[in-house]
User: Fold this.
Amino acid sequence: MDFQRQTSKRLYEEHAATLQLLARVERVFTGRGGAYPPTADDADWAAFARAMVSAIEVEVARHFEFEERELFPRLEEAGDGDLAALLDEEHVTIRAVAQPLAELLRQALAGGLQPQQWQTLKTLGLEFSERLGSHAQKEDGALLPVLDNLLDEDTDRELFSAYAAA
Ligand SMILES: [Fe+2]
Ligand SMILES: [Fe+2]
Assistant:
C-alpha cells in the first residue's frame, strides 16, 4: 500500500511484521513447525517462545499504546469516533488473550508445562493470532487511509519522531 505519511507507512510496516510473526505462530501451534508440544531440548521452540513474549510485551504494547494515545483521539475529533471505538475495543480483547499467553510462554520457558497447559497455550496462541491478524488487516484497510488524509506534514513529522524515539 502506498501511503504519503511516515506515520502511516511505519504502522503499515509494523502490521506486516506482525502478520509474518502470526504465520509462524500458526505453524508452531498446529505442529507444522516441528513437534507440538515441543521436546525439552527444542531450541527453535525456545527461540520462538522468547520472540513471542517480547513481541507481546514490547512491540505490540508500544504499538497499541501509540494508537490509543495519538491516533484514536484524532480519529474521533475528525468524526470517525465509531471506528476509533471499535479498534480500541479490539485492543482490549487482544490484550485479554495476550496476557495469559505471555504468562504461559514464560512458564513453558522456565520449566515446561503440564499436558493440559500445552493445550491451553495452543488455544490461546491460535486465538491471539486470529484476533490480532484480523485487527491489523482492518487497520490497514480502514485506519491507515484515514490517518494518511488526516495528518498534515508537520503533525506527521512530530508524531513519527516521537514514536521512533520512544
Ligand atoms: Fe490497533
Ligand atoms: Fe495497529
